[in-house]
Design brief:
The chain is α/β, with parallel strands linked by helices and 306 residues long. It has 11 helices and 10 strands.
Length: 306
């Protein structure tokens, strides 16, 4: 007779994902299964227990009382197993962490500074995932992410890096060639460089929003240039192709060293911010904790690049 008369662990794993995501579809995507396979596992688990675990509504599900009780127990068990496995692996393996950030943050802010982190913790195998798409830390393929929003994400410990400040930028040569660019409204007569399809990390600020914030009405008089990568937008601005919007955490340094100038207007400061985040239960990982400490020191000191 088995010591632990449990359902199949795969069913419990699937149940945890469905309960946490409150969606069969989202759980199937997370587990790399079909939705029908997830449904079959849940039905088999309910048959084994002799109780319904979910109230199935038209376009939503919710846990029954029995489902909530099982979810609490399964979560505690899996959390404990995960911590134990992580500790055991840490003894024999070189620590490895994956950090996700936007392409621009990775290229302009993170990479020039990473040497200092490597000097500090040379034994950590650090992987950088550059993406402008939304990162879901719960999927488990990312340990740390630079997140954009209000700082509140379920199960995530987030620490403020900097606010969002947006202002126009262009090359010094472009400004010399366009002396008429003196006021925000003058931007309507310039070649504007647009970020298009840049994902969710950039929020809702574009030229239309910035101009409206400056009290400017009307449409641009010239055709702009639309690019789907922010580094390409800034390269276009540096090359004198037009005027771009600059996000201060990237372009402040470019203004300081003279590569770009801010021709007109006041920065648009939004209510959203940028944070470094990791799952709360992963913060006990020393490598993750060290990366958090390092990046907050970089932000706090504003250290000059070597």
């Amino acid at each position: 007779m088995r010591k632990y008369p449990l359902p199949a662990l795969s069913q419990l794993h699937t149940f945890e994902a469905v309960s946490r995501r409150m969606s069969f579809t989202a759980a199937a995507d997370e587990l790399c299964l079909t939705q029908s396979a997830v449904s079959r596992q849940i039905r088999a688990l309910e048959a084994d227990l002799g109780q319904s675990l979910f109230h199935r509504k038209h376009r939503a599900i919710e846990l029954t009382r029995a489902g909530r009780r099982l979810f609490d127990a399964v979560t505690r068990g899996l959390d404990e197993i995960s911590r134990c496995v992580g500790d055991l692996r840490a003894v024999t393996e070189a620590p490895q962490i994956t950090v996700a950030a936007s392409v621009a943050f990775s290229y302009y802010w993170l990479m020039p500074r990473l040497e200092r982190f490597s000097e500090r913790r040379p034994e950590i195998d650090l992987r950088v995932l550059a993406t402008d798409q939304k990162v879901d830390l719960h999927k488990g393929d990312t340990d740390i992410a630079v997140l954009y929003g209000d700082g509140i994400w379920d199960g995530v410990e987030a620490r403020l890096l900097f606010g969002e400040r947006v202002y126009p930028v262009c090359s010094p040569g472009y400004l010399r060639d366009h002396p008429e660019l003196q006021r925000p409204s003058d931007a309507l007569g310039q070649t504007l460089l647009h970020l298009e399809g840049g994902g969710t990390i950039w929020g809702a600020v574009d030229w239309r929003v910035w101009l409206a914030h400056q009290g400017v009405r009307g449409e641009p008089e010239r055709r702009g240039i639309r690019l789907n990568s922010y580094p390409m937008v800034l390269q276009g601005a540096e090359a004198g192709r037009g005027v771009a919007l600059g996000w201060s955490y990237i372009t402040d340094e470019m203004l300081a060293d003279g590569r770009l100038v801010c021709p007109v207007g006041l920065p648009l400061e939004t209510r959203s911010n940028y944070y470094v985040g990791a799952l709360v239960e992963r913060m006990s990982n020393p490598a993750i904790g060290d990366f958090f400490q390092w990046i907050m020191e970089e932000i706090g000191t504003g250290a000059e690049l070597a």
